[in-house]
Amino acid sequence: MAAPRPIYLDYHATTPVDRRVVEAMLPYFTEHFGNPSSTGHIYGWEAEAAVAQARDRVAAAIGARSEEIVFTSGATEANNLAIKGVAEAYLDRGRHIVTVQTEHSAVLAPCRYLERLGFEVTYLPVQADGLLGLANLEAVLRSNTVLVSVMAANNEIGVLHPLADIGALCRDRGILFHTDAAQAIAKIPLDVEAMSVDLLSLTAHKLYGPKGIGALYVRRQVRVAAQLHGGGQESDRRSGTLFVPQIVGLGTAIALGLDEMECEGRRQLALRDRLWQHLQVAGDVTLNGHPTQRLPGNLNVSFAGVDGAALLLGLRPTVAVSSGSACASESQQVSHVLRALGRSPELARATLRFGIGRFVTKEEIERAAAATIDVVQNLRSPSVAVR
Ligand SMILES: *Cc1c(COP(=O)(O)O)cnc(C)c1O
């Protein structure tokens, strides 16, 4: 018999596709395979109608209008279109962009790219709790600032930045406000009007939808210079034949996620709190990020006096977790988010990111907690610690 698979607690990296989402997608691979741009026959119309419904669902989830939604290949592309697209479209306004040190690389890398082209970027530090201080933001805004980009929920430590306050500040100064909501969409309430958001990125594979599809919300009147040129799809903001099954999957995933958001949020919060309670038994464990201003399914903890690599290795048969962001662990680099919180490299390495999601049970949380405590205690016991 094959060994049981480890408990999956890495929902911030990606999620399984909900079977209801797969069911909704399937007909669009085979019977309803038309190109939504082929408006001369029923095949095209069917595809067009499915895309329109998905667009309505995505728009409704954030309080936007359907024509303000641009489908992309995911949040990476949406962030690139938002940041590079605004920078290029508003050259006459200025060349200064503000973002935060703890952003995802899909925001930081386009910013660094723009710096090479002569733009100026301010990377704001965060407070000890991982949140952006409003006064710090206000202090760096200038007359030539064109864009502020601050994520809704952090992918490592789960903290929720004060979007409405940031939005109000930007609106007041006539500065565009972009938020990467890849982790936040259908997890916490989002409203582009109430939060004065001008651009918002999202992706399906963090919310039980398929990989390779996402969207950028672009407020009406706001311009983004296209980064992909071709057939002029998506009102010329993003060319390329629409990936209809994936778009249907995104729409379905968002609708389901919203329906279940409150109830599922409460359930995950209870599991998260249970896990945290358990883990404190190990002693010398620090919670990273604000204790309550965070995603319900996120727990990010550091264990003092433990070798990070050994910790992950010890847990591998039982629990699938990350020690930071996926990219950070591949390159063996210390997470830039934990560094921004002031954690030492050793403590940052001895960090686990637990991502709790839709298919995690109470029993799995109990087992994961027990396994973690076990590994931590073993690594700390003198007989093992001798080198
Ligand atoms: C996953 C993630 C991304 C990248 O999304 P893709 O759809 O995989 O390109 C961007 N930002 C955040 C905060 C994420 O968690």
UniProtKB/TrEMBL annotation:
- What PROSITE patterns is this protein classified in? AA_TRANSFER_CLASS_5 (PS00595)
Q: Keyword Nucleotide-binding: yes or no? A: no
- The Aminotransferase class V domain is annotated at 7-367
Broadest EC class? transferase
Q: Name one GO molecular function term.
A: 2 iron, 2 sulfur cluster binding
Q: Which cofactor does it need?
A: pyridoxal 5'-phosphate
Enzyme Commission code = 2.8.1.7
| InterPro entries, sorted | Aminotrans_V_dom, Aminotrans_V_PyrdxlP_BS, Cysteine_dSase, PyrdxlP-dep_Trfase, PyrdxlP-dep_Trfase_major, PyrdxlP-dep_Trfase_small
Q: For this UniProt record, give its keywords in alphabetical order, as a comma-separated list.
A: 2Fe-2S, Iron, Iron-sulfur, Metal-binding, Pyridoxal phosphate, Transferase
Coiled-coil regions in this chain?
Answer: none
Catalytically driven reaction(s) = (sulfur carrier)-H + L-cysteine = (sulfur carrier)-SH + L-alanine
Q: Which family does it belong to?
A: Belongs to the class-V pyridoxal-phosphate-dependent aminotransferase family. NifS/IscS subfamily.
Q: What is this protein called?
A: cysteine desulfurase
Per the UniProt record, the source organism is Rubidibacter lacunae KORDI 51-2
